[in-house]
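Hi R.,

Here's the chain you asked about this morning:
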Amino acid sequence: MSTTEELIKNARGGDRRALELLLIQHAERLRIHLLRGLPQRVQGRISVEDVVQETLAQAFLKIRRLRGDSERSFVAWLYAIGDMTLIDLVRKDTAQIRGGNFQRKQFAGDSANNSLVDLLGQLPGDSITASRNVAIKEGVAALQVAIASLPDDQRRAVQLHLLQGKSLDETADEMQRTKASVRSLLHRAKEQLADAMGRASNWLSHR
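And the predicted structure, written out as tokens:
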């Protein structure tokens, strides 16, 4: 079993699986950190799960900017990404309110978490059985990391249709794609998520 320092070094060198494991390990700490900083005035429009998901996606893009191989440096780097992501989302929310585009999220808090749990049951292959071998909290963290690792278009389709509950027509309209294209994106996304959950479950169950 690799140590945290070894995982960080490998992740900085481009090993995406090492980064996946690191993010799973630290996802709950990240969530607690961001929850403390989430302004009350935006709760109901921005959920902490929104911020966590975007932070994880940014982590995949910015891993080479991490300096140092210690866990302390990794956590500080991840928190900094999270803080900037939160600031950016709050600014966008404020701009939308000022522009008269107020829209309360249909899912937040526990509902967002339940959507992730529901998605676990929709994945193909042995991912459902595998996910039962670990705690739900860890399974949700692993799924969030897996979603963050998807290509942008696949991640967007998953967020809109599978997590936010928008219809296929609404998802296609918002993404400016055909319904057939969205279906294809969702199919490929589910296959990749199932593979990622299999890797995560194997690691979590053998710690």
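Residues 5 and 71 are 7 Å apart (CA to CA).

Let me know if you need anything else.
M.
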